[in-house]
Amino acid sequence: MPMLIGQIESMWASMGPILNVYYREIPRGCAGTDEHDHLIDALRAGNKKKAREAIENDIKRGSPILRYFEERGCD
Fold this sequence. Notes:
mainly alpha, 0% strand
């Protein structure tokens, strides 16, 4: 678990500033944190299948973020 926490912290440090820009410009209520709550619940319950599903859904929901930056010419 410590390795997973380290990876999550590293990803957050990289993505946090980018997401901050994105979330300032989208309508309220579009934060997409449902999968994060589902992931935390699944990890607490030790349910690997549900945890995987939550991560997959979070990645799929990330496509609007990628499209947003692509439309603005950000690489």
